[in-house]
Amino acid sequence: MRSLKISEVMWNHIEPIRCGTPVTKVVKALLANHVTGLPVVDDHRRVLGFVSEQDCIHSLLVSNYHHEGDPIVDDVMFRQPMTVSPDMSVVDLAQNLGAGKPKVYPVVDHGKLVGIVTRTAILAEFAKSGFSIDRPSYAGAED
Asked: Taking a C-beta distance cutoff of 8 angstroms, is the pair 78, 105 a contact?
């Protein structure tokens, strides 16, 4: 399990959100893909931000209350998302997950989005492996 890489559990079939996308279309993409958030990219697939369900809920509530029309993702996205490398160990990422941490991470290789990895994908991988994580063995240690 220690050697399992993000590239082996990431989803690369989900289309990212483009700048300028109306929030109502973002909501449809989130629901269609069963994810809690998606990266926002430019035309070269460079990650510019991240938009979550919560961002959309808040934005739609505010715009509806003020009758402002459909907001765009640029106005609601988080502009400094945490990203991970496809070569990162799944165990290393799992050890960094916690309260207040993202549930979805954009996977970036050479500055471009190549996929996303979710907590659900990591949990599924742990379940598939029987929850066993390879531990380093120490000389003289008793098993």
From this structure: no
Q: What is the C-alpha end-to-end distance of the chain, expressed in Å? A: 19
Per-residue pLDDT tens listing for the chain (143 residues): 557 899 999 999 999 999 999 999 999 999 999 999 999 999 999 999 999 999 999 999 988 777 778 899 999 999 999 999 999 999 899 888 876 788 999 999 999 999 999 999 998 888 887 765 555 444 544 44
DSSP codes joined into one string, 39-50: EEE-TT--EEEE
Domains and their CATH numbers in the chain: 6-128 (3.10.580.10)
